Amino acid sequence: MARDFADRDALIAYVAAQFPDAAERDANVAPVRGGRAAAERRLDAIRPREYAWTRNELSGDVTRLSAYLRHGVVSLGEVRTAAIDRVNRRGDVRKLIQELAWRDYFQRLYAAGGDETIWEDQEDWKTGFGPEDYADTLPEDIRLGATGLPCMDAFIAELRETGYLHNHARMWLAAYVVHWRRIDWRPGAAWFLAHLLDGDPASNNLSWQWVASTFSPKPYVFNRENLERYTAGAHCRTCPLLGHCDFEGTYDEIKGELFRPMPWDDASAHRGATNGKRAARR
Amino acid sequence: MTDHRDETIGAAPDEAIRNAIVWVHGDCLRPGNPALAAAPGAPAIFVFDDALLDDYGTTLKRLVFLYECLLELPVTIRRGDVAEQVLAFAHGHGAERILTTPSPAPRFLEIGRRLDAEIPLTVVPEIPFLAYDGHLDLRRFSRYWKVAQRYAYGQAGLPLDEDEAPSRARVDGRGGPVG
Ligand SMILES: Cc1cc2nc3c(=O)[nH]c(=O)nc-3n(C[C@H](O)[C@H](O)[C@H](O)COP(=O)(O)OP(=O)(O)OC[C@H]3O[C@@H](n4cnc5c(N)ncnc54)[C@H](O)[C@@H]3O)c2cc1C
């Protein structure tokens, strides 16, 4: 295949012509550039101390190295070295190194267990529902970012346009798909893999399973307060659904509405709640 | 297939490296790719795996990203069935050995077996994130981390934090919970 292109537009036109199916599925091109030079610019910009304080915020100092790490444009060891070079004590790199280790951990699980580990439930669901209760296809409104929930639709647009989402946005969107819409994690995971530049079967699928509860002791949920806090109100402030969106309530209220009681739950969380009301609404 | 567990390329005879081609795949797209480094100047190939791209419903942005990575590498770019393309390329260069780098993907192993059945394949190891070969309990991240954290800082001679010394002692001792 060709190697000489006048500029990026020429490259994009060529790739789109060579892979028309991929372009037809979604013709967006990410602003992020591939290649070592671009990766090194990101490597030079990492700030391990700020990372530790701000990584959960959508505007936080995350590295955005994931696509480069996924494709081995940089190695985990190189990121570690770059991080350590910028600090004087372990405590200042601990958080970043631990996140790098998550990648190593997931890759090891994949190497040990293959497709079975990443595409099959690792454990039972802990939502009070069984696998048969979850839909096995992703509805169009989710695929197209037309759910009517401004925050979710914004995340979906970003996923499609840039091939990147902040970790917290991935968690919220995955939780919305699996728990609020009661869709199996597999179609959700496959959808992410089609769009993410860092799409990695191990990190992605096992994270979806972690949200779902098939690879964790409990399902992951969030509420509006949590989303508002880590997005600095970007979506909630102007949201027409403010005060009555699907994510309002305390964690106990939300769990009470989304899940059936599990043996270890505090029964009071479910008092008066119609189980599955929120999911059934859509 | 030669795996890094029983042979590293450093031990391979010189002619083997002279008559080798390098198969670059999507898990190691850096100029310092150890297989490229092991055979400087050897012909190298990358193949877009058409069936895989279809399976994953890959979208354009990912392909553009990959293509930009490839343009910085000394590789011939092809597409189609990966094993067929790599073998044709190897035969075209009269290669007696194929070098590549590791991947955990089952598909990589399957392609590797097909290559190795015709031309010996050597998987040149990457420097692992953890310089540790022993047992790691992978049931939960916390169990993995209990051991991995001892190696995760690499060779760095960074001083421990004040709060770290006891927690390390605990872990190194009888494997208490991770603090
Ligand atoms: C539902 C869901 C799907 C995900 N899918 C993927 C995926 O396909 N590919 C992928 O690389 N990550 C995935 N992640 C993990 C994480 O969200 C991304 O690695 C991270 O957001 C990438 O941004 P960053 O490079 O700025 O990360 P940083 O926070 O700067 O972290 C540095 C690097 O550490 C690694 N890392 C950080 N957090 C994690 C984590 N939780 N799990 C694994 N590795 C981590 C990544 O390689 C990342 O580039 C997923 C998470 C969730 C909740």
Automatic annotation (TrEMBL), chain B:
SUPFAM superfamilies: Cryptochrome/photolyase, N-terminal domain (SSF52425). This is Universal stress protein UspA and related nucleotide-binding proteins.
